């Protein structure tokens, strides 16, 4: 597959791909693109092709996908001005190629072209109701920046940040990676509400998170999670299940492995301790802006009950890069029940 600027006679085949995708979405009640709207924008696509902004993916002489790569044109990004950012819109893959990895290859190629054109960030968005597409972007390292006018914004850093020694997750060998610390989090989610804490001391003091702490030697992550929630807020979690394995590498050399659990209920009423101030919150109103950067990437999936493995590169408490992959509860249970040597 080769991603390159489109020629004039490739405008209509590209629009045809968009219309096919719009028809497919419309039939499944996905409100991303509407049939007929893209064909009506042909003049804009002609202008984009003339400016070198229309990219097509060619494979064996056939146009199988593409997108528009341009300077951030949309006012939804007005609160985050970044002159070295490019915006990728109308990303599309031929319907008969969906699911074979072509979309990821097109996106990776677009990132390379954006770097060559001097961009430090690549931005894209999707309608906030299109959860599957949002999860797809986040799995590939795009950070959700919030919803504006019904669109969920994402961006990804394309070049290392100044002063960051390790600039990419690809530079970390997670097969041989060994964490300095092992920690847990436990979230009770009951009747559409989630138990959170204002952390008062220790790692993450001043932030909002779930109850949790460091695994002690001879203790399993599951035992730690149960102990920590009782010590921090005075409740006993019922049948917690590990749903997220978190691998954190900081550019200062420190590292941490985390297990995040979900329980459907607890015994007792949460109470304030020297460690934390507990509170219940609707799952739709989780205050991610007061939490760790990475929480916004994986915690919504934990609430949904989706098992994941996440890898995160951090720098001065900020998320630099991330990657997610699916896993199974059985795989997570195997690790969560094993005592720490």
CATH structural architecture of the largest domain = Alpha-Beta Complex
Number of helices: 7
What is the strand content?
Answer: 35-45%
Helices and strands, in N-to-C order? Answer: EHHEEEHEHEEEEEEHEEEEEHEEH
- Please state the average pLDDT score: 91
What general outline do the C-alpha atoms trace?
Answer: elongated
Main sheet specs: 9 strands, mixed
CATH topology-level name of the largest domain: Nucleoside Triphosphate Pyrophosphohydrolase
Share in helix: 10-25%
The secondary structure category is alpha+beta
Output the radius of gyration.
22 Å
Regarding CATH, which class of the largest domain? Alpha Beta
Q: What is the straight-line distance between the termini? A: 47 Å
Q: Can you tell me the residue ranges where pLDDT is under 50 for at least 5 consecutive residues?
A: none
Number of strands: 18
CATH superfamily of the largest domain: Nucleoside Triphosphate Pyrophosphohydrolase
Give the number of domains: 2
């Amino acid at each position: 597959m080769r991603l390159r600027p489109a020629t004039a006679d490739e405008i209509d085949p590209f629009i045809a791909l968009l219309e096919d995708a719009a028809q497919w979405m419309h039939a499944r009640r996905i409100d991303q693109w509407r049939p007929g709207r893209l064909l009506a924008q042909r003049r804009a696509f002609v202008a984009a092709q003339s400016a070198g902004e229309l990219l097509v993916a060619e494979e064996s002489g056939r146009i199988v996908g593409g997108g528009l790569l341009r300077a951030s044109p949309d006012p939804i990004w007005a609160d985050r001005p970044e002159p070295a950012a490019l915006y990728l819109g109308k990303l599309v893959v031929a319907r008969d190629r969906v699911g074979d990895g072509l979309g990821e290859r097109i996106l990776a190629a677009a990132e390379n072209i954006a770097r060559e054109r001097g961009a430090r960030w690549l931005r894209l968005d999707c309608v906030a109701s299109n959860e599957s597409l949002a999860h797809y972007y986040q799995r590939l390292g795009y950070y959700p920046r919030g919803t504006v006018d019904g669109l969920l914004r994402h961006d990804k850093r394309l070049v290392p940040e100044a002063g960051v020694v390790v600039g990419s997750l690809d530079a970390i060998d997670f097969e041989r990676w060994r964490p300095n610390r092992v920690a847990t989090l436990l979230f009770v989610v009951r009747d559409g509400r989630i138990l959170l804490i204002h952390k008062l001391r220790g790692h993450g003091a001043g932030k909002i998170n779930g109850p949790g702490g460091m695994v002690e030697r001879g203790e399993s992550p599951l035992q730690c999670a149960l102990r920590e929630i009782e010590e921090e807020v005075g409740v006993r979690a019922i049948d917690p299940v590990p749903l997220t394995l978190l691998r954190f590498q900081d550019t200062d050399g420190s590292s941490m492995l985390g297990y995040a659990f979900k329980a459907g209920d607890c015994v007792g009423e949460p109470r304030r301790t020297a460690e934390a101030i507990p509170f219940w919150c609707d799952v739709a109103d989780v205050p991610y802006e007061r939490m760790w950067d990475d929480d916004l990437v994986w915690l919504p999936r934990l609430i949904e009950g989706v098992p994941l493995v996440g890898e995160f590169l951090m720098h001065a408490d900020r998320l630099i890069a991330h990657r997610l992959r699916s896993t199974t509860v059985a795989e997570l249970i195997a690790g969560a029940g094993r005592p720490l040597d």
